[in-house]
Design goal:
Number of strands: 4
Strand content: 15-25%
Structural class: alpha/beta
Largest sheet: 4 strands, parallel
Strand order of the largest sheet: 2-1-3-4
Bound molecules: FE2/S2 (inorganic) cluster
CATH topology: Rossmann fold
CATH class: Alpha Beta
Helix content: 25-40%
Length: 147
């Protein structure tokens, strides 16, 4: 259930080639997407490290979205398929830790999908608002995506 006055913090780990380019395109086209989304560029979702995702939650993220190339289009061949398995494993870890595996989602986008980027960003924002704050969110501490 959503919480009144809750402003989510969502870290979006985006592959340089596709999802990051799609987010960039959305910005260039002035397509609106929520301020809760903090885009972080990574070379490929195949580089995803479960520890980095857990660290994002520990530093105050309420949700994490992993955004990579379309299936079959990863520039490192199967990076996004490896990422999908790691996301599933991370979901299990988060569920066992009581944080909730549903706080992490993976999306596939091409660099031309600026509109789709804005759509999935809004979808993720709504999903995390519905879940409410992460139980790991530090009270009054620094937030994910801020320095
Ligand atoms: Fe985009 Fe691998 S290069 S997911």
């Amino acid at each position: 259930m959503g919480e009144l006055g809750f402003e989510p913090r969502i870290v979006a780990l985006c592959c340089h080639y596709c999802a990051y380019a799609a987010a960039d395109l959305a910005g260039a086209l002035r397509l609106q997407y929520p301020d809760s989304i903090h885009v972080v560029k990574i070379p490929c979702t195949g580089d995803l490290d479960v520890r980095d995702v857990l660290a994002a939650f520990e530093s105050g993220a309420d949700g994490v979205m992993i955004a990579g190339c379309m299936e079959g289009d990863c520039h490192y061949q199967t990076g996004n398929l490896r990422a999908l398995k790691r996301v599933e494993r991370t979901q299990q870890v988060l569920t066992e830790a009581g944080v909730g595996g549903e706080r992490i989602r993976m999306y596939h986008l091409s660099s031309a999908m600026g509109g789709r980027w804005a759509e999935v960003a809004r979808e993720m924002d709504a999903h995390i608002r519905q879940l409410g704050p992460s139980p790991l969110r530090p009270v009054g501490g620094a937030s994910a995506g801020e320095s």
